[in-house]
Amino acid sequence: MEKDQLFILDKWIKSYLNEKKTLNLAKNTILNYKRVLDSFYGFYALKDEENCINSIYDINREFILEYLNNLGNKSVNTKNLHITVIKSFLSYISEHNKDNIDLTAKLKGLSAKNVKSESESLSEYESELLEKYLQEKRYKKNFLNIRNRLLVKLLYYTGIRASELLSIKLEDITPLEEEGVYKIYIMGKGNKYRYVYIPVDLITDELMFLQEHFLEDETLHTKNPQKYIAVTQKGRVMHRAELYSMLDKLYSKLYIKKRGVHILRHTFGKRMVKKNVNLSTIKELMGHENIQTTMIYARSDEKGMIEAVL
After folding, report:
1. Which residues contact 127 (CB under 8 A, 6 or more apart)?
2. Cα distance between residue 264 and residue 280, in whole Å
3. Under DSSP, is residue 22 helix (H, G, I), strand (E, B) or coil?
4. Angstrom distance (rounded) from CA 52 to CA 46
5. What is the four-CA torsion angle of 262, 263, 266, 271, rounded to 10 degrees?
6. Which terminus of the chain has a smaller tally of CB atoms within 10 A, N or C?
7. pLDDT recorded at residue 166
8. DSSP 53
9. Which pLDDT value is given to residue 2?
């Protein structure tokens, strides 16, 4: 490798960073770019000593992958930052070198991916705590308590998303008397609708209370004419942050050291698998676009594997 290649690379880096400064990028952004390119320069210098590459214009996908591997156990976000900066830098060289050499063609689609991990859900004990709370009949029968219980039941027993819950109106809930369930119209991701189902006896009391409350409370009747069920006492549809806050308080009350709405969705998926429900049915109930997403819930835990061999 010609010794002047490091000098050329250094010139390109300085030219690239000067352009970013001229474009008035934030100081922290430019510092991050410089750190990445200093690191990249150091790796290139190492390869220079090993005579692994003849010219900076020979940098390719394999070279970048080796560089990323050399970073060690950095987070996905950190590696993606390095990829973004290096792509931008090589694109700059491609646009400005006099021989019109394109360094970017082989880097398309390059990104660091998160390793899919098992989705966090409630344990059996935590599920029992939550179910016991939801089935308790002795509690203060006020608007907030009853609304909250209805929302949590729908999340836990149907596996719907937070955004889907916040869009449900009373008219979306239809009783199927012979089957003993409510059929609930859900508008999901990408404006794709589906139906979910919940036993009538689980939410009838809450629904009847809300219906009466909407009729009797002038504020709710006026400000919530469409009768959304996730509504505040002032007649406004709840914000997602308010839903999260409500659930966090409930988890804390039940000594469940977990957070978030999606945990209840994952718990529903795993519960369906344990009931040996067909994966295609679970896919439809949860509104998954791809059955591979549903397969996450089919992963066996240690207890399940021990039970299987016994």
Report:
1. 267, 271
2. 20
3. helix
4. 9
5. -140
6. C
7. 94
8. -
9. 47
DSSP readout, 69-130?
A: HHT-S--HHHHHHHHHHHHHHHHHHHHH-TT----SGGGTT----PPP-PPP---HHHHHHH
Residue bearing tokens 């509104």: 287
pTM value? 0.61
Query: What residue has token string 């209805």?
Result: 150
| Residues 112 and 79 sit within 8 Å (Cβ to Cβ) | yes
CA-wise closest residue to 135 among 66, 58, 199, 214: 199
Q: Is 54 helix (H, G, I), strand (E, B) or coil?
A: coil
List Cβ neighbours of 16 (8 Å cut-off, separation of 6 or more). 33, 37, 88, 89, 92, 93
| Residues across the chain | 310
Contact 237, 166 (CB under 8 A): yes
Q: What gap in Å lies between CA 220 and CA 24, rounded to an integer?
A: 50
Mean pLDDT by 10 residues, the chain (310 residues): 75 93 85 92 81 78 86 82 90 89 77 59 93 89 92 96 94 94 90 93 93 79 82 88 94 92 93 90 91 79 62
**pLDDT at 129 (0 to 100):** 95
The H or E element that residue 5 is part of is helix 4-22
Give me the architecture of the 124-309 domain, per CATH. Answer: Orthogonal Bundle (1.10)
- Per DSSP bridges, beta strands 181-187 and 193-199 are antiparallel
The CA distance from 229 to 171, in Å, is: 10
Every domain of the chain and the residues it spans: 4-107, 124-309
Nearest alpha carbon to residue 13 among 66, 86, 68: 86
